């Protein structure tokens, strides 16, 4: 399952990460992350496995994504990486 731009923004904010922090942690370019976060509804258009890479990074930091991209996308915070 993929994640929405709103979920990316929310997860990053919940962890206190900048776009650059997330880019450094995942290898996904900061301009790409900004573009993903700008998508207000549905899934950002993505090549490669960037959305999966972002999701895996957030999950490793204690974020759990809930709902579906079409209905009720959200997240829960279970812990943070120091």
From TrEMBL:
Give the signal peptide, or none: none
Task: Report which superkingdom the organism of origin falls in.
Answer: Bacteria
- Gene3D superfamilies in the record: lambda repressor-like DNA-binding domains
Report the residue ranges that make up the HTH cro/C1-type domain in this protein: 8-37
Pfam families to which the protein is assigned, alphabetical = HTH_31
* SUPFAM superfamilies tied to this protein: lambda repressor-like DNA-binding domains
Q: Which CDD domains match?
A: HTH_XRE
What this protein is called in its record is Helix-turn-helix domain-containing protein
Please provide, alphabetically and separated by semicolons, the GO molecular function terms listed in this UniProt record: DNA binding
